[in-house]
Structures are given as C-alpha cells and as structure tokens.
Amino acid sequence: MSPHTKLLTSMSLILGTTITISSNHWVMAWVGLEINTLAIIPLISKPHHPRAIEATIKYFLVQATASALLLFSSMTNAWSSGQWDITQMNHPISCLLLTAAIAMKLGLVPFHFWFPEVLQGAPLTTALLLSTLMKLPPLTILILTSHSLNPTLLTIMAVSSAAIGGWMGLNQTQTRKILAFSSISHLGWMTAIILYHPKLTLLTFYFYTMMTTTVFMTLNTTKSLNLQAMTTSWTKAPMLNTSLMLTLLSLAGLPPLTGFLPKWLILQELTNQELAPTATIIAMLSLLGLFFYLRLAYHSTITLPPNSTTHMKQWCTNNQTNTLTALLASSSALLLPLSPMIPTLL
C-alpha cells in the first residue's frame, strides 16, 4: 500500500470516528459510520488473499445492512416525533431497530457471527483497528441512546455475549479468533452496565483497548498467528512474551492486574442497582474466558525440550521491541494501585 493511500485511509478513519462521536444529528452520525466503513475496507483487503477478500465482503455486507437499519430507525423516529436528535428516540419500533443495528455494528450476540471470520481474514494491525477503534462510534451512539432502549433486551444481549464469547473461544487455536471472542465477551460486560453507569462503560472500553492493543502489537512482533507459533515465540522476544502473559491474565480480569479494576467496578455497580443475579451470572461466565486466557498465557511462556521438528525455529532474530508496546504492557498490568482515583474521575 502506497504512503498516500495509507495516509488517506488513516485520516478517513479519524474523520469518520470524530464525526460520529461529536454529532447530535442522525444523518451526520450515519455519515461518520459510512466513512469509517469505506476507510477500513482497503486495509482488510490489502493482502490480496482469498480469505482477506472474503472477510472484506462479509464486513461490507454486514456494515451496510446495519447502516441501513440505523438510518431507517432514525427516519421512522423522525416521521413520528419530528426530531432528528440522537438523544430523542421515542418510537418503540425505532428503538428496537436501533438496538439491532448497533448490535450488528458491534458484533453483539446474536449478531456476532461475522466478527471472528472477518478478524481471521484480516492482518493483525487491521484486526486491532476492528477490535478497538471501529467499536468506538457505535458504542458512543449506544451510550447516547441507552436511556431510550429496552433494558431487558440489553441485559439479555449482554449476558448472552459474555456466555458465547467465553464458550466459543474455548476450542479455538487461531489467536485472532480467540481475541475476537474475547472482544465479544468484553462487549457483554460493557453492555450490562451501560444503562446504569455510561462513564463506567467508557472506562471499561479504554482499559480493554489498552490491553488488546498490547496483545496485538506483541503478536505482530513475534508473528504468532496460532497456538503452535506461540510455543516458539519465546525464542524471539523472551521479555516481551513475559509481559504478554501478564497482559493476557489482565484481560482475564485476575487481581492484582489492571483488568480486574473495570470488572470489579461493574460488579459493584450492578449490585448497587439490585441486580445481583446478573452480576453473579456474568462473573461466573468470565471463568470460561479465564480458561482460554490461561491457555494462551501458558503457550506464550512454554519452553520446549530438545526434539526434532519439521519447522524452522528462529533462534537468531533481531526483533526490536517497540517503546509503545513496552509502555502499554506495563500499563496493562500495573494500573490497579490507581483505583482509589477512579471514583473522582467517574
């Protein structure tokens, strides 16, 4: 990809995200989502591989359908109420269609089937964008309209996402698919609290973005696309793999690592809202995700005994660890002592 094309797509991604998260009008929010979709498509199809082209077509069809649903829901609401303001969603059918459109954009259950397949066909850097930056505009719309949506439907989708994300990730061997189901599970946690504490949803998204960026950048450095490649990745960057283990355990939500903080606050807020059954269910479902995180952490630090294999081991490689990766890895594991400052920020 030429530098001019890369600059154009990067600026379009930033522009589309900025337009959506700063707009109050439905048409402008839809325009920002469309700019984002059109900007990410060249990045997904960049390898010119049949799997990448398939992922591009799947992504385009799903996003186009979700955008049409979103525009139709906003038009139906404007027809009945005369309002194009995002926060003025009063029509029940419009709210239902909007919930389906945003769930399709984010990859929430039951509209999650496209997300692992698209991530598996995309390069690691593009998969990182799909898991983090591309989730921000739809999540912002969901936060702005959450007071108008059906709380029972959102809770069912949140619990189902936490369950499916943990359950389907158990039998995966491809790291991108594992991280896709991890994203679905974390989206379930964010959706569970979005009605009661929107700022906590954003905090959870920021922590998730930081930890997922660390994992993707580490996997990109060591070129680990599956569990078999992870077993020999310690020979390329031993210290980076050690930090990867801590980041994966932090994603699982184990104390005393950073990832424990948002889950702790979400469970506390759900209990305060007298939703202890929901808090108990999603806390137990997080154990499913803990299993495959532990498996990834084990594979990232395993040392193999001397044996004869058919593949080449890269014993002498010159992998320069990025300073940003090291900084993000440290933050992903060591930010829990800052938790007393969080209530003042929220």
UniProtKB/TrEMBL annotation:
<keyword id="KW-0679">Respiratory chain</keyword>
<keyword id="KW-0813">Transport</keyword>
<keyword id="KW-0830">Ubiquinone</keyword>
<dbReference type="GO" id="GO:0005743">
    <property type="term" value="C:mitochondrial inner membrane"/>
</dbReference>
<feature type="transmembrane region" description="Helical">
    <location>
        <begin position="234"/>
        <end position="255"/>
    </location>
</feature>
<dbReference type="InterPro" id="IPR050175">
    <property type="entry name" value="Complex_I_Subunit_2"/>
</dbReference>
<feature type="transmembrane region" description="Helical">
    <location>
        <begin position="275"/>
        <end position="294"/>
    </location>
</feature>
<dbReference type="GO" id="GO:0008137">
    <property type="term" value="F:NADH dehydrogenase (ubiquinone) activity"/>
</dbReference>
<dbReference type="InterPro" id="IPR001750">
    <property type="entry name" value="ND/Mrp_TM"/>
</dbReference>
<feature type="transmembrane region" description="Helical">
    <location>
        <begin position="178"/>
        <end position="197"/>
    </location>
</feature>
<dbReference type="GO" id="GO:0006120">
    <property type="term" value="P:mitochondrial electron transport, NADH to ubiquinone"/>
</dbReference>
<comment type="similarity">
    <text>Belongs to the complex I subunit 2 family.</text>
</comment>
<dbReference type="Pfam" id="PF00361">
    <property type="entry name" value="Proton_antipo_M"/>
</dbReference>
<keyword id="KW-0812">Transmembrane</keyword>
<keyword id="KW-0472">Membrane</keyword>
<dbReference type="InterPro" id="IPR010933">
    <property type="entry name" value="NADH_DH_su2_C"/>
</dbReference>
<keyword id="KW-1278">Translocase</keyword>
<feature type="transmembrane region" description="Helical">
    <location>
        <begin position="57"/>
        <end position="79"/>
    </location>
</feature>
<dbReference type="Pfam" id="PF06444">
    <property type="entry name" value="NADH_dehy_S2_C"/>
</dbReference>
<keyword id="KW-1133">Transmembrane helix</keyword>
<feature type="transmembrane region" description="Helical">
    <location>
        <begin position="152"/>
        <end position="171"/>
    </location>
</feature>
<keyword id="KW-0249">Electron transport</keyword>
<feature type="transmembrane region" description="Helical">
    <location>
        <begin position="91"/>
        <end position="115"/>
    </location>
</feature>
<feature type="domain" description="NADH dehydrogenase subunit 2 C-terminal">
    <location>
        <begin position="290"/>
        <end position="342"/>
    </location>
</feature>
<comment type="function">
    <text>Core subunit of the mitochondrial membrane respiratory chain NADH dehydrogenase (Complex I) which catalyzes electron transfer from NADH through the respiratory chain, using ubiquinone as an electron acceptor. Essential for the catalytic activity and assembly of complex I.</text>
</comment>
<keyword id="KW-0496">Mitochondrion</keyword>
<feature type="transmembrane region" description="Helical">
    <location>
        <begin position="203"/>
        <end position="222"/>
    </location>
</feature>
<keyword id="KW-0999">Mitochondrion inner membrane</keyword>
<protein>
    <recommendedName>
        <fullName>NADH-ubiquinone oxidoreductase chain 2</fullName>
        <ecNumber>7.1.1.2</ecNumber>
    </recommendedName>
</protein>
<keyword id="KW-0520">NAD</keyword>
<dbReference type="InterPro" id="IPR003917">
    <property type="entry name" value="NADH_UbQ_OxRdtase_chain2"/>
</dbReference>
<feature type="domain" description="NADH:quinone oxidoreductase/Mrp antiporter transmembrane">
    <location>
        <begin position="23"/>
        <end position="287"/>
    </location>
</feature>
